[in-house]
Backbone:
């Protein structure tokens, strides 16, 4: 059967592909350490699971309103107010099947062919593909390692023209872990506002921040800014609930209503049981989140130090999320067994073959000098995996 041009152009998700590859090798008995998956190794909290069981037993197993039940919207509104003093009405909130789906819907209802959307790189793998699926053009804005992978206002200005419709922000960033303080954020947002851009702000890692940093949502910077911003978040990362598939958007009523119409013709509501579980997550005890973030920080400190001890690797110290994005280009041009490492794909293949460690090539995130390592895995695996990489790269000369 001939596939649509759209389907033929679509690239598979590199993060999901590597994760699946590592799982497949493991099930064949290969002793692989998986640093690919961007999902917390922790289980979903008990009170979340209990609420889901209660929902099943109470028969909460039917279709719900397309954009989620009122109780879920109330719980999201409560969280935004409690955490950031942000006020939204129910008509400004929609729940979807994970934040990936939320983002997909946003792109579909906002963009047309001819529109340009600025995507700061390194970027999460799905943004450019989702923009292209909406027939728009992703315009990549490269950030520099030396600048802490942050967008500089002048660089942003230089990428804007009359076709530019929106800016994607993602902080703490997947894959770099970079985030912004209020001053830096304001400087970027001012440029976007001057140009009349819509800001799509993916803040899914907001709770996973280090060194006592407090996350500042774009929408909290002022009423006008809030009106131009669609805030995206979800339960996957904060509450270790990747499999439940609940994400949400908060923003302009008209956009939310268009997303609801699209959802009504595609997926309908996100799973009813997951919606109840998400309510428990948003309204329940948050101590567990703090404890887990501390644990992530310890792992991060270990991994950054060990990677920086490797002669040809430089590893930026992230301020949030659960990834490191080491620069491995010092090994490019070196070889082992007659095979020259030319790029991040070769390096990824080398560590998988020689160290049995799965990492994601940086090229999938728009930076071929790097690889992404997720430390959302046990400390034992981290110690073993980093040791294996340290030993393997010694073979390169
Ligand atoms: N945004 C970013 C930056 C992510 O890393 C992820 C993780 N896959 C998502 C959105 C989507 O998360 P989910 O669909 O699980 O809510
Ligand atoms: N966001 C995670 C990652 O970057 C999960 C995989 C995905 O949805 O892309 O690995």
Residues:
């Amino acid at each position: 059967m001939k596939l649509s041009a759209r389907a033929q152009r679509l690239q598979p998700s590199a993060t999901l592909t590597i994760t699946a590859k590592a799982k497949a090798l493991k099930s064949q008995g290969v002793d692989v350490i998986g640093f690919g998956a961007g999902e917390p190794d922790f289980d979903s909290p008990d009170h979340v699971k209990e609420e889901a069981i209660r929902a099943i037993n109470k028969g909460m197993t039917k279709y719900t309103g397309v954009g989620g039940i009122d109780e879920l919207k109330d719980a999201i509104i409560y969280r935004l107010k409690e955490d950031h003093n942000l006020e939204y009405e129910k008509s400004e909130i929609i729940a979807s099947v994970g934040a990936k789906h939320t983002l997909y819907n946003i792109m579909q209802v906002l963009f047309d062919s001819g529109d340009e959307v600025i995507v700061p790189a390194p970027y999460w793998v799905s943004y450019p593909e989702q923009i292209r699926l909406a027939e728009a053009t992703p315009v990549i804005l490269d950030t520099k390692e030396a600048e802490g992978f942050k967008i500089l206002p002048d660089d942003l200005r230089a990428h804007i023209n009359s076709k530019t419709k929106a800016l994607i922000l993602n902080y703490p960033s997947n894959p770099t872990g970079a985030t912004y303080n209020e001053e830096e954020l304001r400087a970027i947002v001012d440029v976007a506002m001057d140009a009349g851009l819509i800001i799509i702000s993916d803040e899914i890692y907001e709770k996973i921040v280090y060194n006592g940093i407090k996350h500042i949502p774009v929408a909290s910077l002022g009423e006008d800014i809030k009106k131009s911003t669609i805030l995206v978040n979800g339960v996957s990362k904060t509450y270790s609930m990747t499999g439940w598939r609940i994400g949400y958007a908060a923003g302009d009523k008209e956009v939310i209503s268009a997303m609801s119409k699209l959802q009504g013709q595609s997926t309908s509501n996100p799973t009813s049981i997951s919606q109840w579980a998400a309510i428990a997550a948003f309204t329940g005890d948050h101590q567990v989140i703090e404890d887990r973030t501390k644990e992530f920080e310890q792992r991060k400190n270990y991994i950054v130090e060990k990677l920086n001890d490797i002669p040809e690797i430089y590893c930026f110290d992230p301020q949030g999320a659960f990834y490191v994005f080491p620069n491995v280009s010092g090994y490019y041009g070196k070889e082992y067994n007659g095979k020259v490492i030319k790029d991040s794909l070769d390096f990824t293949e080398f560590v998988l073959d020689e160290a049995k460690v799965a990492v994601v090539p940086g090229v999938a995130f728009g930076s071929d000098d790097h690889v992404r390592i997720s430390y959302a895995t046990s400390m034992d695996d981290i110690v073993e995996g980093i040791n294996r990489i340290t030993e393997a790269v010694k073979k390169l000369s």
User: Anything to note?
Assistant: The CA atoms of residues 30 and 356 lie 8 Å apart. The pocket of 4'-deoxy-4'-aminopyridoxal-5'-phosphate (ligand 1) is lined by residues 38, 98-100, 124, 170, 174, 202, 204, 234, 236, 242, 247 (CB under 6 Å). The chain has two domains: 5-43+288-392, 62-283.
